[in-house]
Write a structure and sequence with these properties.
The chain is mostly helical and 250 residues long. The chain has a single domain, classed as Up-down Bundle (Rhopdopsin 7-helix transmembrane proteins), CATH 1.20.1070. It is built from 9 helices and no strands. GO terms for molecular function: G protein-coupled receptor activity. Keywords: G-protein coupled receptor, Membrane, Receptor, Transducer, Transmembrane, Transmembrane helix.
Length: 250
């Protein structure tokens, strides 16, 4: 949808239904991504320090599967009510701006609901992801020291880099969006709205693009495989030519 807008420089089709669907898909996927990342960041503590908790079938469903299911159902239901079924007309959409101006009706007509969305569904989740991963690193180090065991940084380095990378990515991506979103709720201006729509909102796509690489980059043999591919690309191709066979007459 974004690429289609950048290709045309206007929304097509210019209808409220299309914009409403776009906002629903955009908001639901963003919130689901962030909520699942927060839930998984918390569950990782249990998987590392209390793995026996998941051996019981009931506890496994309650503490593992149900939170993940909630991470999918809640954004779908919340934005179904706030975007799809919320009263709105075509005058609320801007068919000349990306994401239809990102002026979802409940954001402009219901400040309390908009504030709840920004705080609970965006800001709080970003903070949980960051703190959960940082605290996990601290807990691992403290456990090693408490057991008077030497910390094998070669073994902990991969986990530490991965968790810090994930926390930093979510922090750098969502903090600008949170700040600009709150400014728009407190003191909206056209200049801030233009910056948010044209630049800040697009930052969230970097999470989808970079998270897989953070995970893949931590695989032990990934770097070797990448170097092998680069060497293969740099290797000069075999020369292909014709061979002339000369025979002597007897």
């Amino acid at each position: 949808m974004c690429l289609d807008f950048f290709r045309l420089s206007y929304i097509s089709p210019a209808t409220g239904i299309y914009c409403r669907g776009w906002m629903y898909i955009e908001s639901t996927l963003d919130a689901t991504n962030e909520l699942l990342a927060a839930i998984i960041s918390i569950q990782r503590h249990t998987l590392i320090f209390r793995p026996h908790l998941f051996r019981n079938t009931i506890k496994r469903y309650v503490f593992y599967y149900l939170p993940l299911l909630f991470g999918v159902i809640y954004p779908v239901a919340f934005y179904m009510g706030t975007i799809v079924f919320y009263p709105c007309d075509n005058s609320d959409w801007d068919f000349t701006s990306n994401m239809c101006g990102d002026t979802t009706c409940y954001l402009t007509k219901n400040p309390a609901l908009a504030m709840f969305d920004w705080i609970v569904n965006t800001a709080l989740l970003a903070i949980v992801i960051m703190l959960a991963n940082i605290v996990l690193i601290i807990k691992v180090i403290r456990q090693r020291l408490r057991q008077q065991r030497a910390i094998s940084w070669s073994k902990q380095r991969r986990m530490t880099i991965q968790l810090i990378s994930i926390s930093s990515l979510y922090l750098l991506i969502w903090i600008p969006s949170i700040i600009f979103g709150l400014i728009q709720q407190i003191s909206p201006t056209d200049e801030i709205d233009e910056i948010q729509t044209d630049y800040v909102e697009d930052l969230t796509y970097f999470i989808c693009l970079l998270i897989p690489w953070i995970g893949i980059g931590m695989l032990p043999d990934f770097k070797k495989w990448m170097l092998k591919q680069f060497r293969r690309l740099r290797k000069p191709p075999n020369a292909i030519g014709t061979t002339i066979v000369r025979t002597e007459a007897h």
